[in-house]
């Protein structure tokens, strides 16, 4: 497999945290950083898509967001106010 080697610099505490996370996942730092970068790129692409969609169709409603969260099995947002 062809790879693109990069050199990166981190604050020492962040570097330690990245190495620890990579060890915990059972992979190397390069794999962990590649996975993190890919996730960040997907998140940014989704945000761009949603911004464009909402500009054309209007903002998503609370009901639409709740339905999407349910279908994607996302954690429920914290609610404020008295407990039911």
Structure, described:
The chain has one domain. The chain is mainly α. It has helices at 12-25, 29-57, 62-71. The model has no long low-confidence stretch (mean pLDDT 92). Helices cover 63% and strands 0% of the residues. The chain has three helices and no strands. The longest helix is centred in the middle third of the chain and has 29 residues, at 29-57.
Distance between the termini: 55 Å
* Radius of gyration, in angstroms, nearest whole number: 19 Å
Q: Give the DSSP E fraction (strand runs of 2 or more residues).
A: under 5%
What would you call the shape? extended
Quaternary status: single chain
* SS-based class: mainly alpha
Provide a brief overview of the structure.
The protein is mainly α and 84 residues long. Helix content is 63%, strand content 0%.
SSE map:
Elements: H1 12-25, H2 29-57, H3 62-71
Helix pairs in contact: 1-2
Keywords:
single chain, 84 residues, mainly alpha, 3 helices, 0% strand
